[in-house]
Design goal:
With 180 residues, this protein is of the alpha+beta class. The chain has a domain of 65 residues: Winged helix-like DNA-binding domain superfamily/Winged helix DNA-binding domain (Arc Repressor Mutant, subunit A, Orthogonal Bundle), CATH 1.10.10.10. The strands form two sheets. Strands 1-6-2 form a three-stranded mixed beta sheet. Helix 2 crosses helix 4 and helix 3 packs across helix 4. The two termini are 18 Å apart.
Length: 180
């Protein structure tokens, strides 16, 4: 194993007894699963529109600038996105009671119902897939859930920048991470 393709927090982890995680395989598996479970097209939404709609639902009424910041998108992109969500009846703009120049975005009952339907469909599809696993595989997945949840919440603030790559790696290279 070349040290160029191994990411470790200490030199002794490279040759230690710690289990190795093939980061590339993990990334590809998660991306494929995510792609299979994406149902945004059933509601006529782009992935970005779906994410924004879910953010408005989760956060409650919010200003457009706050939504742009939460989603990491430019104001001009947000304007088009919100217009599309409004035209589809998923969100509504209301005057901001604290600032007459601003407006807040709220999810409509149709938007909420659409998100619930998409969540139900993806949950049913995932449950059907889990039934294909052996009991031992389901157990391994259940044990991994807390770690996967932690990974899902950790921001990509590593030193490699926005790409979220470990230091010393380049896109497209297989990375084997040794974890303890």
């Amino acid at each position: 194993m070349s040290t160029e393709s191994v990411v470790a927090t200490t030199p002794d982890e490279v040759h230690g007894d710690a289990p190795a995680v093939d980061v590339t395989r993990l990334r590809v598996a998660l991306a494929r699963l995510s792609r299979r479970l994406r149902k945004h097209e059933l509601a006529g939404l782009t992935p970005t529109q779906l994410a924004a709609l879910a953010t408005v639902e989760r956060s409650g009424p919010m200003r457009l600038g706050d939504l742009a910041a939460a989603e990491g998108i430019a104001p001009s992109t947000l304007t088009r996105l919100v217009t599309a969500l409004e035209e589809s009846g998923y969100v509504r703009r209301n005057a901001d009671p604290s600032d007459a120049r601003a407006s807040t975005l709220v999810i409509t009952p149709r938007g909420h119902d659409t998100l619930e339907r998409l969540r139900t469909e993806t949950t049913l599809e995932l449950a059907a897939s889990l039934r294909l696993l052996t009991p031992a595989q389901r157990s391994a997945l259940a044990e991994a859930l807390p770690v996967l949840e932690l990974l899902a919440e950790v921001p990509g603030d590593g030193p490699a920048g926005a790409r979220g790559l470990p230091v010393g790696t380049r896109p497209g290279r297989s990375v084997l991470m040794v974890v303890k």
